[in-house]
Amino acid sequence: MYERYDVVIVGGRVAGAALATHLVRRGYSALVVDRAAFPSDTLSTHLFQRNSSLEHLGVMERLLATGAPLLTEFRLRLDALDLSLDHPDLSMLNIRRHVLDPILLSTAEEAGADVLTRARVIGLLTDGPFVTGVRLRDAERNETEVRARVVVGADGRNSTVARLVGARRYNVTDSERAGGCAYYEGVEPSPVFHFYAQGPDYYLGASTDSGLFLAIGLWSRRDYERYKAPTGEGFEAALATCAPLAKLLAGARRTRPPLFIKRWQGYFRESAGPGWALVGDAGHFKDPTPGQGISDAFRQSERLAELICHGIETHTVEAQLKAWWRWRDADAAEMYWWAREMGRSGAQLPLIKELFRGLGSDPRSLRALHEVVFHRRRPYRVMSPPRVLAATGRLLIGGDLPRGEVVSELRTLATRDFQRRLRTRRPVYEQPGQPGQPGQPGHR
Asked: Are the beta carbons of 234 and 152 closer than 8 angstroms?
């Protein structure tokens, strides 16, 4: 470890390791600091879409060597509505984090990044308003100072870097669902990803690394107590109500008690300032229902590396970091609000079901719907106002719902759309002691 680097990255998981790899391959020095000792687990659905940024890291051979199959067959059902589609050109992977993260971190180290684990950032070095480095404490409680042109927080939702620079959160949303997950042995590995919405509940499943199968349940938060028993009886009873997964898991053995999560928040954070930036969950977290976080981290890290390198080369680092923040918000905004809609509790509105029925009736529209998950289509270009109005017309003319209920649902969706657009243009910031108060980004 040296006393000075081009970039110090706090956090060595997906976002931090990927960022370090991109930077050092471009000829810049990088130090990755993480308080964990790897391999180390972290709470995650660990399903992610294969995208160009992942390919550019050159790790696919190592990821497939874990035994995780490429997921190319999507079994998607909304109650009785079948929206399934196979597409070999669009695929997902499902790799547990204590397997995935060491692969990415070792890739960064092999590329030339320095890696320091079991070490904590205890402070930032500053020169006036500029962040110029970090103060570290290692596992033996030795303290040292490391200077850098840029300090990046890739240290997750409880980011130390975000706290130290005072980065505010904005457009915060509360979860309406709770969830649980468990791993099973004895399920034949397959390229199938399962997603079943049954009334108010969601059930997901897919093969993962090492011959295991991951099963996930997501329920309205008020129902959490019914399923949370640590011995797993409630979780197993819930899975038994989902016929496709129950059939798949017949005879399989659960390897450990389920893991549960009851509450989370979605947010954006101020993600750039003089000499610092935030990437991955440190700067932005969305409802996990559509499984976007890891793919976001790959895509964001590549873009941030490009802008940092350009900033160093042209002596415009501060401007490029601001450009990073603007790009991140533009890239993430629509998916953030769509994930929020997917994560709402309760059954889907009949109008939403009719919208999906219309999409599923046309092969090109159905393909476009699947492409949303892979960040190839913008959600509200596919689930667009004209398609919502067309679904409304079908319900009014030939549906069984009372006319007033259809109009009420349309009004609900229109109101949500207005609020989404307004908050994207004029973010609502948390203020100290006054969460959710309006504010302005000011220096973005």
From this structure: no
Cα(7)–Cα(20) distance, integer angstroms: 8
Tokens 């969950």 locate to: 281
What is the C-alpha separation between 286 and 379, in angstroms, rounded?
14
Residue showing tokens 């709402």: 344
Q: Could you name the CATH architecture of 4-46+96-173+264-339?
A: 3-Layer(bba) Sandwich (3.50)
Reading the chain (444 residues) residue by residue, the pLDDT tens digits are 789 999 999 999 999 999 999 999 999 999 999 999 999 888 788 999 999 999 999 999 999 999 999 999 999 999 999 999 999 999 999 999 999 999 999 999 999 999 999 999 999 999 999 999 999 999 899 999 999 999 999 999 999 999 999 999 999 999 999 999 999 999 999 999 999 999 999 999 999 999 999 999 999 998 888 888 888 899 999 999 999 999 999 999 999 999 999 889 999 999 999 999 999 999 999 999 999 999 999 999 999 999 999 999 999 999 999 999 999 999 999 999 999 999 999 999 999 999 999 999 999 999 999 999 999 999 999 999 999 999 999 999 987 889 999 999 999 999 999 999 999 999 999 976 544 443 333 334
Residues 2-20 have pLDDT tens digits of 899 999 999 999 999 999 9
DSSP string, 288-304: STT--HHHHHHHHHHHH
Distance (Å) of CA 255 to CA 181, 187, 194, 214, 261: 11, 12, 20, 10, 19
Q: Look up the pTM and report it.
A: 0.94
Each domain of the chain, given as residue ranges in start order, spans 4-46+96-173+264-339, 176-261, 349-425
- From the CB of residue 142, how many other CB atoms can be counted at a distance below 10 Å? 9
CATH of domain 176-261: 3.30.9.100
Coil, strand or helix: which one is 160?
helix
Rounded Cα distance between 73 and 92, Å, is 9
- DSSP bridge pairs for 81: 78
Handedness of CA 330, 54, 205, 180 (dihedral sign): negative
Distance, in Å, from the CA atom of 363 to the CA atom of 356, rounded to the nearest integer, reads 12
Strand extents, DSSP E, 53-200: 73-78, 81-82, 85-86, 92-94, 114-117, 120-127, 130-137, 143-153, 169-174, 177-185, 192-198
Rounded to whole angstroms, the maximal C-alpha distance in the chain is 73
Region of residue 61 (phi > 0: left; psi between -120 and 50: alpha; otherwise: beta): alpha
Q: Are 42 and 157 in contact (CB under 8 A)?
A: no
